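Anyone up for a design puzzle?
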């Protein structure tokens, strides 16, 4: 019976886990152990729509509090300056896994040439606008948004809410563990204190102190699919640049570069493959592209992959302690929120005493999420035909996409039909078929069913794109929408039940 939960780590993963347990299982005592001298990772700033849902709907954090303290900006999707097209937008609303009522085939069959303004989000992104305007001029805040958020600010906000929710914080460095027949009995701090618990969540970041180090769970490397293993990170104070309502991802000689938009800061990072470019060369290429980046950008090393099992005995890992992939789709916080919800669900259904079969099922479900994301990210690389560098040649030749071979084959034969979903092994991620179709069409991957619409169909299709564009043109910029939600007369409609 779980009565006393110890969370190791107070980065975003540890705090989201601790707060979620307090909120949903208040009968369990929650302590967070962390070492302020190690600190939090300090990167991780793009999110997906399950993140606001987790904060506001699941945890019941009032929007007003969150907006005031965390100062997020909105993200409608990712603009890929990437591949055979000049750019394409991956939005959080269905662009391709959808069909107009007046047309016979799904949208994907109509965008061989023009893959733009397919939905309102994409049109808003193209116009540099974040939300359409209501009749009274106020932003019509749509559910299909995520946030850009500064990691350290976010952690500070969560910590404040966690303290108010009764989470106990213990400062100290974990040095060792004590075990019993159920797994871990206690963690031992450097100063000799023993912190006992009957269930442990390892959120110690890349150090994976409990799952990786203490329990020695084997790590599954994704290096056959994802070749990048470092990032050079830097940013600058915003001056005249407008706040864009999306993350930008663009190809570089040996990887790709993100741009994330905060209100006062622009955050940039170049994710690269250290086998094929030195840190110094990567930093030089990064600075040449971003002259405003300071002279000493930070280098962050990582390995893409996950532990074989996330839950071993009475220890479960969440966040970077359990697995990590490069931030190409900002998946880390998405997985944190989704796995925390799954875990709490499993523990609730087990009446706080989870059985081995419940644990095995959790491991199967979470493992599938990681494999799905590995393959989805791999699909950003392999179909590229634009970049002619040794790194991109290698991506085309060597990226292992055997996990989605059935989908790729079905797409080749049948094009962007919604039936492609039946060739996916699992649907354990938030991207779904939409994500795969955006990558396949964004890269203009050829298929054997090109469609020639009639003149009438072309007219309907063009009118649809034009209507999205016109509505977007009348929308609000991020700056304008922020001014509205900060006005004392603005009212959020929260669900206080969480
Ligand atoms: C280059 C890069 C870019 C990223 N971009 C994104 C993004 O855009 N979107 C996204 O969702 N994610 C992104 N991430 C991932 C993101 O950083 C993490 O999802 C998120 O911040 C969670 O981190 P964490 O809580 O697991 O670990 P951390 O923030 O590293 O926290 C670890 C915690 O463990 C504690 N700790 C560790 N060892 C000990 C010990 N021995 N004793 C006591 N305490 C200990 C530390 O004190 C700290 O509190 C990015 C990551 C990298 C590397």
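Challenge accepted. My sequence:
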């Amino acid at each position: 019976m779980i009565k006393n939960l110890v969370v190791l780590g107070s980065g975003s993963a540890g705090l989201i886990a601790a707060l979620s347990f307090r909120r949903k299982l208040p009968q369990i005592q929650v302590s967070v152990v962390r070492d302020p001298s190690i600190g939090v990772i300090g990167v991780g700033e793009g999110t997906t729509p399950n993140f606001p849902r987790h904060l506001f709907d699941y945890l019941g954090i009032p929007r007003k509090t969150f907006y005031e303290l965390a100062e997020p900006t909105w993200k409608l999707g990712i603009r890929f300056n990437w591949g055979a097209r000049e750019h394409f937008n991956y939005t959080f609303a269905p662009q391709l896994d959808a069909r107009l009522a007046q047309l016979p085939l799904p949208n994907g069959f109509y965008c061989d040439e023009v893959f733009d303004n397919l939905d309102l989000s994409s049109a808003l992104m193209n116009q540099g606008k974040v939300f359409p305007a209501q009749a009274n001029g106020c932003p019509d805040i749509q559910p299909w948004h995520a946030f850009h958020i500064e990691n350290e600010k976010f952690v500070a906000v969560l910590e404040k809410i966690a303290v108010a929710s009764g989470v106990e914080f213990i400062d100290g460095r974990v040095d060792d563990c004590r075990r019993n027949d159920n797994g871990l009995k206690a963690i031992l701090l450097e100063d000799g204190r023993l912190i006992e618990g009957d269930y442990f969540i390892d959120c110690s970041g890349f150090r994976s102190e409990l799952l990786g180090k203490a329990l020695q769970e084997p790590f599954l490397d994704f290096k056959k699919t994802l070749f990048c293993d470092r990032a050079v990170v830097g940013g600058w104070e915003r001056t005249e640049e407008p706040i864009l309502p999306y993350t930008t991802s663009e190809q570089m000689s040996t990887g790709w570069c993100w741009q994330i938009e905060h209100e006062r800061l622009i955050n940039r990072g170049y994710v690269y493959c250290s086998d094929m470019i030195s840190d110094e060369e990567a930093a030089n290429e990064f600075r040449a592209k971003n002259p405003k980046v300071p002279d000493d950008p930070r280098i962050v090393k990582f390995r893409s992959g996950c532990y074989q099992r996330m839950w071993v005995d009475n220890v479960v890992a969440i966040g970077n302690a359990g697995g990590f992939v490069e931030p190409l789709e900002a998946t880390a916080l998405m997985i944190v929120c989704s796995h925390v919800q799954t875990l709490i669900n499993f523990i609730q259904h087990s009446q706080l005493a989870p059985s081995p079969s419940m644990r095995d099922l959790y491991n199967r479900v979470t493992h599938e999420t990681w494999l799905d994301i590995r393959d989805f990210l791999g699909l950003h690389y392999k179909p590229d035909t634009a970049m002619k560098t040794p790194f991109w040649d290698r991506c085309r030749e060597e990226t292992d996409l055997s996990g989605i071979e059935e989908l790729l084959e079905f797409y080749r034969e049948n094009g962007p039909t919604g039936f492609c979903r039946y060739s996916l092994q699992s649907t354990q991620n938030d991207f779904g078929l939409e994500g795969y179709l955006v990558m396949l069409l964004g890269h203009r991957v050829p298929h054997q069913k090109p469609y020639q619409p009639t003149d009438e169909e072309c007219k309907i299709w063009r009118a649809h794109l034009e209507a999205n564009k016109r509505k977007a043109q009348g929308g609000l910029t991020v700056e304008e929408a922020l001014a509205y939600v900060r006005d004392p007369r603005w009212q959020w409609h929260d669900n206080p039940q969480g």
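A detail worth pointing out: Residues 4-72+149-222+305-373 form a domain with the FAD/NAD(P)-binding domain fold (CATH 3.50.50.60).
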